[in-house]
Design brief:
The protein has 124 residues and is mainly β. It has no helices and eleven strands. Strand 4 and strand 5 form a beta hairpin.
Amino acid sequence: QVQLVESGGGLVQAGGSLRLSCAASGGTFSPYGMGWFRRAPGKEREFVARISRSGDITGYTDSVKGRFAISRDNAKNTVYLEMSSLKPEDTAVYYCAATRRASGASYSYAYDYWGQGTQVTVSS
């Protein structure tokens, strides 16, 4: 089994940037597509970004396009989410997840492994 641990969350002012990391342990995530999701208070979990096994295919929800960038370093068993131009509505707990689907997926139920989440708070 693969365990995923997110880090890098915190408090940032609107317009600022953060880089989230998701490190795998107990195995490697190179066979997996990866995704980032978030859950804001009182809202359903929302897809944010996905990346294929090799990192050559990425996808984003419309609200973060141009501001967020997902990447991965399979040698380090780590996936990243670089976030810039942050907005208060980006405030959420962010989760990384691994799926057997090679290109990742946009739906939470496609994922097999989840991290514990890291809090991102954007102040106005």
